[in-house]
Design brief:
4 domains, about 40% helix, 37 strands, 8-stranded parallel barrel, disordered N terminus, Immunoglobulin-like, Jelly Rolls, alpha+beta
Length: about 900
């Protein structure tokens, strides 16, 4: 027969186990069902042909075998089906795309074939008929891979397969994974894809440069071209020194609209070094050129020819065409000059994103966006974080929009940039970006990074390396978008580009003044300033999240800029866009959608569009209603706090046993925990009630702090670093913006953690080798939290208290003191109920805490490099203060 003591112990233990089982199920009930959603955003339009294709224009000697349209796809261990390429998949993972194409025997025998991909994100490997063809990292630069003839087959039996993944990593990919405000990392074959059929000997690439005379009455045009292949696919390469009649290289200038031939260069023989052809250069002098500018976007077609004499005629072996505009960009006297005149830049940031197509936007939609930008009065577009689709630059050429495009080096820590492998990756992307887009007259400057850790030596060394590389390839100006105070690398750039996050008007003015003074010898451009809007909010200018508030934001800041010596500014942004990770700071109601646009994702104009248009056109804007918005503290904290206080007061006055336990636990904790050890005077129900009340108190305070700092970039970054799972961060963000739900879920989580701590105390018996029953562990854990009851009244007023910055540090100091007090009480209670010397328990407890902290640190460092990102965040905060 069990003794009375054993019966009571079994009863308490059984009750504790039942409570523990119930609470362990809470996170499962609260967590959303994590089922993968394989969403494909299909474009499927055919590849654009003709002289406006943007990259690798069509010529009589070349043929494009379009690979757009229907492709089969499959996911490892997931679904399979058919999609229309180009398409973007809106999830993280790997997808294999496959289709077949047809070739004739004559085509295979007489031509070379190249797989051209305008953009496949983020990395891919290509096989044709099961044979490896090539691979690539980076989803926004274009590739041209040779397909060996010996793996091609006659007929429709040629199978091409692209194994694509858009998985990013916090340490090895460019861009990195953790940035909370990164652009959406859509995967897939997001842009045009085709096989290009060329002659055996062909022009691989050509670059045009122009040198205007001082009076602009003439221009010296130079084309540098690289040649590949041989005269015949079946004949061996000729030995070095063999003399032949040709081939020759020349180029012709043709008016783009009329087709009228303007001039043609002399034919220059091409020579070889071993099995490779030397780069060939040809020049001509052009009289009275029509200069390209945003106001008059005059374009020419440059036709590059490889020819061979045949009798008295020249046979064209290959023709390579490119669109060109003749213009001169220089920097003098701290200003940017276009064709000798100072530029006044009116810019917008364009995101390659659309709710219907993701990043696989159809060409006609891109053109609509460009037309809207011109209607707005913009003459500059910033392609943020990556190079755009080549057709977008073709549109900028034709419509007259200057463009600045940049590498996806955004918010990257210095130690990461110092790695040699990362520098090689950045250099490769820069080289690909410049080689592809250097012939576009619209491209004004190259961007080497955005909001980097400029104070780190690794950042400086990488930027020096990228600067040297860029200057050997092209003469355009360079910039890096820097935060105020984090501009130690700006001096090595040609343009002092400033990136500003939302600031009050007074700080905005002072920051601009300080930046202009610090970079008086460089052209200064504000490349980012903007604010978010709640799309349906028409509450007047008193509400900063209203459409009127967004319009007023731009009117005020453009007025401030008007009096300063800046080359111009870039509005952030033209259109709404989807982020790669959910963001706390988003006010749209959807933490994934950033509503910073002058137009919505569906291109619906907002009031700010008309406001900015009036500024760009020098017109007056309508008076904006002020509204009656007030930003009061949420009453939910006061309400819930009163409920908890009333409940606690009722229990305290109505239940003498609970009142005595609470007094003794706070005033004479040693005797109280001794009574717990001896199974006297403490009810399991009272312990649970106290734990629930404390959990609510902690939840109220936690929710107040999180809601108050919901506009903090620091908190947003911290959540991204620590909550690695996107769905988890999304759930947390939604809770923060809904205080009542946050309090309820937060209280459940805190209570669950108390149960976990009680379980750890129970397990402690295996270390100290004493008998600690589950009831003891549960009771000691709950009653050691008594000091946290003070958080109930604190939480009721904390949201307002934090409005004054002078109280922020004292509040967090109070929370630290309370946490240490609770920890000491817990260890003291454990030492009493286990009859172990306090020193041994304190040492064991502190060792357990230190071990847990070390495990967490190592995990986050190894898997996500979080300490490095936290250091970067800290240095950014210091530099921008």
């Amino acid at each position: 027969m069990p003794t009375d003591f054993q019966q009571r112990r079994q009863l308490h233990t059984g009750s504790a186990i039942r409570i523990l089982t119930l609470l362990l199920s809470i996170p499962l009930l609260l967590s959303p069902f994590a089922s993968a959603q394989y969403r494909f955003l299909e474009n499927g339009n055919p590849t654009l042909l003709g002289s406006d294709a943007g990259y690798l224009l069509d010529t009589p000697t070349r043929r494009k075998i379009d690979l757009s349209g229907s492709w089969d796809y499959s996911l490892p261990g997931g679904p399979s089906g058919t999609v229309r390429v180009p398409c973007a998949f809106d999830f993280r993972g790997a997808v294999a795309f496959q289709r077949s194409f047809e070739l004739t025997k004559e085509e295979i025998d007489q031509h070379r074939f190249h797989l051209v991909c305008f953009g496949v994100n983020y990395s891919y490997e290509t096989t044709v008929n099961g044979e490896f063809v090539g691979s690539h990292l980076g989803g926004y630069t274009s590739t041209m891979e040779a397909v060996p003839r010996d793996i091609l087959q006659v007929g429709r039996d040629n199978a091409i397969r692209l194994a694509v993944t858009n998985e990013l990593d916090p340490k090895v990919t460019l861009p990195t994974r953790l940035a909370p405000w990164g652009v959406r990392n859509y995967g897939g074959i997001t842009r045009d894809i085709y096989l290009m059929e060329t002659p055996p000997l062909f022009i691989r690439d050509a670059a045009l440069s122009s040198e205007l005379s001082p009076s602009s009455e003439s221009a010296k045009l130079t084309v540098h071209a690289s040649i590949e292949g041989s005269d015949s696919l079946t004949q061996p390469d000729m030995p070095v020194g063999t003399k032949t009649l040709g081939p020759f290289f020349s180029f012709e200038i043709v008016e783009k609209v009329s087709g009228l031939s303007i001039a043609r260069s002399p034919a220059v023989p091409i020579t070889r070094k071993g099995t490779d052809w030397d780069e060939v250069k040809s020049e001509l002098l052009m009289q009275n050129p029509k200069l390209w500018s945003p106001e008059n976007p005059e374009l020419y077609l440059v036709k590059c020819y490889l020819t061979r004499p045949e009798g008295k005629d020249l046979r064209v072996i290959d023709e390579y065409d490119l669109t060109a505009g003749i213009r001169k960009i220089t920097i003098a006297g701290g200003h940017i000059l276009l064709n000798g005149s100072r530029l006044s830049l009116r810019g917008v940031t364009w995101y390659e994103d659309h709710p219907t197509w993701g990043s696989s936007i159809p060409d006609e939609e891109r053109e609509r966006d460009v037309v809207m930008m011109k209607t707005l009065g913009a003459n500059l577009v910033r392609f943020i974080d990556h190079p755009p689709h080549p057709y977008m630059l073709n549109l900028c050429d034709r419509y007259g929009l200057l463009a600045i495009e940049e590498l996806p080096l955004s918010g990257t820590p210095g130690p990461l940039l110092a790695a040699e492998s990362y520098g090689d990756l950045a250099s490769a992307m820069l080289r690909e970006m410049i080689l592809r887009d250097r012939n576009h007259p619209s491209v004004m400057a190259w961007g080497l990074g955005d909001e980097l850790d400029a104070g780190h030596e690794g950042t400086r060394l990488l930027l020096e390396s990228l600067t040297r590389l860029a200057r050997t390839m092209d003469s355009r100006p360079l910039y890096m978008a820097a935060l105020p105070g984090a501009d130690s690398c700006t001096q090595m750039m040609d343009i002092a580009a400033l990136s500003l996050h939302a600031q009050d008007l007074k700080t905005f003015r002072s920051t601009l003044d300080a930046w202009r003074s610090a970079h008086s010898k460089q052209p200064a451009i504000l490349v980012r300033f903007g604010t978010e809007v709640q799309p349906e909010n028409r509450g007047g200018t008193s509400d900063p999240l209203s459409q009127e508030g967004q319009a007023r934001f731009y009117l005020q800041r453009f007025e401030a800029l008007r009096t300063m010596n800046y080359e111009g500014a870039v509005v952030w942004s033209f259109n709404d866009w989807k982020g790669d990770r959910p963001s706390l700071m988003v006010n749209s109601g959807n933490p994934w959608i950033h509503t910073t646009g002058l137009v919505s994702g569906l291109r619906e104009k907002r009031l700010a569009f008309d406001a900015v248009r009036s500024v760009f056109h020098g017109e007056k804007f309508i008076a904006l209603p002020s509204g009656s918005h007030s930003s009061g503290a949420p009453l939910v904290y006061v309400f819930v706090g009163f409920v908890v206080l009333i409940t606690l007061a009722y229990l305290y006055n109505a239940n003498r046993r609970f009142r005595d336990c609470l007094k003794r636990s706070m005033l004479n904790s040693y005797n109280f925990f001794a009574d717990v050890r001896d199974q006297r005077s403490v009810s399991l129900g009272h312990s649970t009630i106290l734990g629930l009340v404390v959990s609510l108190a902690v939840a109220i305070v936690g929710s107040s702090i999180l809601l108050h700092f919901r506009d903090s970039e620091v908190l947003d970054n911290l959540l991204s670093y620590l909550l690695i799972s996107d769905w988890l961060k999304e759930a947390v963000v939604r809770l923060i913006w809904n205080p009542l739900e946050c309090i309820g879920v937060g209280a459940a989580i805190v209570f669950f953690l108390l149960i976990v701590v009680a379980g750890m105390v129970h397990v402690l018996r295996l270390i100290v080798r004493v008998r600690i029953f589950a009831f003891h562990a549960y009771t000691v854990t709950m009653w050691s939290t008594g000091p946290l009851l003070i958080l109930v009244p604190v939480g009721m007023v904390l949201y307002r208290v934090l409005d004054s910055s002078m109280y922020v540090i004292p509040v967090f100091a109070l929370l630290v003191v309370l946490a240490l007090w609770v920890l000491i009480r817990l260890l003291k209670g454990v030492s009493i109920i286990s009859d172990v010397r306090p020193v041994k328990v304190y040492a064991t407890g502190l060792l357990a805490v230190a071990t847990l902290a070390a495990v967490i640190y190592v995990y986050y460092d190894y898997t996500q490099a979080v300490p490095m990102y936290l250091s970067f965040l800290h240095s950014t905060m210091i530099n921008t203060q």
